[in-house]
Amino acid sequence: MFKTLCCFFLTCTFLFADANATSKLEEGIKIDALHQKITLIDEAVKDNLWFKRYGNYLTYQKLLEELSTVDAEVKKFKNTKDKASLEKYEKLLTKQESLEKQIELLQEFKNSPFSKLVDAADVESYTKVTNPFAILSALSYIKKIKQESLDYKARLERLDFLVEKLKEKETLLATLYEIEPMITNEDALYEAQKELNAFTSAQEIARTSYSLYVKKVEEATIRVTQDITVQMKRAFNIGIFIIVVIVVTFLLKFIAKRYVKDNERFYTANKIINFVNVTLILLILLFSYIENVSYLVTVLGFASAGIAIAMKDWFMSI
């Protein structure tokens, strides 16, 4: 009976040990899989522009802390006179200078790591399109602001991708901490949560900023497009008027050629018709595009003088 109990006890012990070993093996496999997934996420986000700027921000903060420590050490050894202390003091001064230079290079990360990425570029104001020659520059302006909007959208998409990956990483680290409640895993989870909070806040600000920016771009595009449409319609109407003037000119020339037999009179009439034709075309263009009416007085003066000169021969022949 005793032997039977011993055998049963040993069998149970071996089975429990085997089950425990199997459980630990499965746990180890699961932990390795979690670490691999976390590594893949780190690889996927390491070149992300938002992540790099956040890394620069953390570097800036660490440099500030290190400089604060060095400053305290410098003050401590400032008045020492023994050789060993002086050597250490010189090293501290060198390190202090190096840290100050590094901090100066990272000065843009003093307040926020994402200020340049979150802030949308101002939509440049565009002067009203007042003539057909400005249409090309207006179209270039529309293309430019739309491209800037697309660039901002691309930045936002990279941020969205980063946030999704960091959420995955946080979930993986939380699972890892449940399996292995170690200090290192706890610290890693805390850092991941800290990063995620920072990027989530930036994401909210960026989305709001992008929404406002898109509205500004749309408003500017609509305004400039309307100006372009107006100018194209005006140019079309002016073109019709000019064509009518040219057609009338050819008709007058045809009539003059048919009914004026004297060559000299025909030459004078042809000259007057040509000048009136050019003058009318110029007046059409000037009335359409000169905004300052005072300029028209000068233009009309030159036109009158031109007509008088053109008709001089005709008056002399009377």
Structural description of this entry:
The radius of gyration is 42 Å and the shape is elongated. It has 9 helices and no strands. It is 86% helix and 0% strand. The longest helix has 77 residues. Among the domains are: 67 residues; 85 residues. Helix 1 packs antiparallel against helix 5, helix 2 packs antiparallel against helix 3 and helix 6 packs antiparallel against helix 7. It is mainly α.
List the helices and strands and how they pair.
Layout: H1 2-45, H2 49-77, H3 83-105, H4 115-118, H5 135-179, H6 183-259, H7 263-289, H8 294-310, H9 312-317
Roughly what is the average pLDDT, rounded to an integer?
Answer: 81
Q: Residue share in helices?
A: over 70%
Strand content: under 5%
DSSP summary: helix tally: 9
- Radius of gyration from the alpha-carbon trace, in angstroms: 42 Å
Structural class: mainly alpha
The termini sit apart by 156 Å
Oligomer: single chain
**Biggest sheet features:** none
Shape: elongated
Order of helices and strands: HHHHHHHHH
